[in-house]
Amino acid sequence: MGCQGCGLNELLIDIKAEGPLNLHLLRDASRLMRISNALHHADEGVLTIKESGAREFADFCDDHMDGERVRFRLPGEDWRAMSELSAVLETEWIDKLIAERRICMYFQPIVDIEERIYAYEALARFTDEDGSLLYPNIVFSAAKTRGRLYALDRLCRMKAVEEAAPLRAKTFINFIPTSIYSPEFCLKSTTELAAKLNVDPSLFVFEVVESEKTEDLEHLKRILAFYKEKGFQYALDDVGEGFSTLEMLAELKPHYMKLDRAHVHGVSRNSAKQRTAELFLDTALRIGSVPLAEGIESREDFEWLKQRGYRLFQGYLFGKPSLPPSPLQEVKTCNF
């Protein structure tokens, strides 16, 4: 059985009511939803309705029910207050963006200590229907609100693999672990696409983002084990935020660990950031990970990090994100 959230079928919304009056009115609402063909399923105290009937139900709830005792949820998610339903309905545009694949990938170089290109990071950019740019944080926030995070994350992964394949260069690809229900099903399309394009899987480094929100460590380990089994590599971002112990990091065994830009910018003249960078470096080397510093904008910070032992670097100092580079551009290959 596949995971929930994999498609873009009409959104189904569970409605739960408490209290005698609300339960009585919920039965009335069920009849109205059935007449308008918006009812999907009905149980005692819970209705599952199609999005096409959600606004009508919300109006009925506002006019007649005790809204404080009515809640809703999207498939696979927790119950929410009815006051949040309007935000879900207002993000319907994200479905069209995903269906129309209004996305392009920009690539930012990652360099070694000699400033030779070692890899690229693929970064998603989105456009509105009129062609104007949509900021990634707005798009991902809307997808999360609407329960479309998996579908959006999958689109980004697939597009990154497609556009990185001709480069035949190591490419870092972001993914959100909380959007993946089952690695065996959710990631199957990604691995099959890489195989179809005849790309060595070790060239792809899947980078965990939102690591500060990673609460289910066992689930994350299953995802990373799946990637490793298929020959891919993986990296952890914002390690200091999400993984507090050396034992935890050693258990995950990331191929790369990224020092976040917050600890990099100005590190050459900030003693607190220097202590963080040195501790991070020591941790990465102790567990066998390659340390990578991102967000480098000044040569002073680059030189300081290089002298301390960092091996890979990323930031505006070496290049801004841009459209896919020429496949003929030389990329250094080395094994750390």
From TrEMBL:
- The organism's superkingdom is given as Bacteria
Q: Any idea where the EAL domain is?
A: 86-335
Q: Which Pfam families match?
A: EAL
The record ties this protein, via InterPro entries, to: Cyclic-di-GMP_PDE-like (IPR050706), EAL_dom (IPR001633), EAL_sf (IPR035919)
Q: What is this protein called?
A: EAL domain-containing protein
This protein's species is Cohnella yongneupensis
